[in-house]
Design goal:
Keywords: Signal
Helix content: under 10%
Distance between the termini: 47 Å
InterPro entries: DUF481 (IPR007433)
Protein name: DUF481 domain-containing protein
Number of strands: 12
Pfam families: DUF481
Number of helices: 2
Organism: Paracoccus albicereus
Length: about 290
């Protein structure tokens, strides 16, 4: 069992960079047939990956709920495709994906529910039937002390014998802001979670895990930012430590750079440990 992810909503603390927006382009008529659209889509994918890397530095919980949007709001998206082919394989395929998120914030209490449904079939046979849902709640006792609750459930309707068809957990715990100034922010939180898993044709497994997390941010000046995120997770099946050190540079209003160094340590019960290190560089330039 790899690990129990308990604190998905607080996985990163921020460097508040002003990242320039990517330029949006219009593709000419005929781009689909000539293959131009496919390459343009790939460009968009890379842009999205870089933007996501920068967004991970932004933490909406840095200063608590003061600037958080109030009331009920959310979004829903759906995509469907049905393909029919008259080649030798003569394959008919259908794909449906639905995703949605609903949030309700009222003062010091915030809640979010998310849902993902993926369904595919080929020649009338179901090939994918995945459903996943999440719940995230936070309650702020004061400017420094807060509590959280997290829930997740995933199901696989076409899992084969021996494969996982149920995976769920519920976690909760307190958090505290040790330093909370515009230039320096440091908070720690600890939680306990219960994970439930089941493989097709096998007995289910319930496991308790404990996690301690640290989120640190410091702004040296208007150009340079430092972040360091650390998580330690322990359970009956394994111990996991992850650390992400990041430097953010706002070189100009149009140019921003992020350099990160990530370390992941994993030690399953009864076996040797593994350590993975990775260096990442992201650059955004808009003009």
């Amino acid at each position: 069992m790899k690990n129990i992810t308990l604190l998905t909503s607080t996985a990163a603390i921020l460097a508040a960079l002003s990242v320039p927006a990517f330029a949006q382009t219009e593709i000419a008529t005929g781009a689909n047939a000539t293959g131009v659209s496919a390459i343009d889509d790939r460009i968009t994918d890379i842009e999205d990956d870089v933007q996501d890397d920068f967004d991970r530095q932004n933490d909406p919980d840095r200063f608590g709920p003061a600037d958080r949007r109030q009331g009920l709001f959310g979004n829903m998206s759906l995509t469907y495709s049905g393909d029919t082919s008259n080649n030798d394989a003569n394959v008919d395929e259908q794909d449906l994906s639905i995703a949605g998120r609903l949030s309700y914030n009222q003062g010091v209490f915030s809640q979010t529910v998310g849902l993902v449904i993926d369904y595919s079939e080929t020649d009338g046979d179901t090939t994918e039937e995945d459903v996943a849902a999440i719940y995230d709640a936070q309650y702020y006792f004061n400017d420094r002390l807060y509590g959280f609750g997290l829930g997740r459930i995933e199901t696989d309707g076409v899992a084969a014998a021996g494969e996982k068809d149920r995976d769920a957990f519920l976690g909760f715990g307190p958090g505290y802001r040790i330093i909370n100034t515009p230039d320096t922010a440091w908070r720690m939180q600890a939680g306990v979670g219960v994970r439930y898993t089941r493989n097709v044709g096998e007995d289910s497994d319930t496991e308790v895990g404990y996690i301690v997390s640290s989120r640190f941010y410091h702004r040296f000046n208007d150009v340079l930012f430092l972040t360091n995120d650390t998580d330690y997770l322990t359970s009956d099946s394994n111990d996991t430590i992850s650390n992400s050190l990041g430097l953010g540079f706002k070189v100009t209003e149009a140019l921003a750079t992020k350099i990160s160094y990530d370390t992941d340590y994993d030690k399953p019960d009864g076996s040797g440990s593994t350590t993975d290190n990775s260096l990442g560089v992201s650059v955004v330039y808009g003009f």
